[in-house]
Amino acid sequence: MRNPFCPISNQPARYFDPLTQTPYRDARSFRVLRTLYAMHHATGIRPAVLLKQYTQGELIV
To answer: Matching Pfam families, A to Z (predicted)?
Structure first.
């Protein structure tokens, strides 16, 4: 089985967030995931769109 990758750091994940169902690498990645999750609930924008905007540098968290 392949190790999951963190979508924030693009490195192998060490942990798994049960709320967002997303693997993550470190505390910084966890904070970004939870911030994007809160933004999703506040704005209704899909999480995948927010993540793409963040990774492309279009969204500052």
So the answer is: YL1_C
Number of domains making up the chain: 1
Tell me the pLDDT band of 53, cut-offs 50, 70 and 90: very high
Predicted confidence at residue 17, as pLDDT, reads 97
**pLDDT interval class at 1 (50, 70, 90):** very low
Give the three-state DSSP class for 22: strand
Supply the range of the domain harboring residue 17. 1-61
Model confidence, pTM: 0.88
Please list, in sequence order, all residues whose beta carbon lies within 8 angstroms of the beta carbon of residue 8, skipping any fewer than 6 positions away: 24, 25, 28, 29, 32, 33, 54, 55
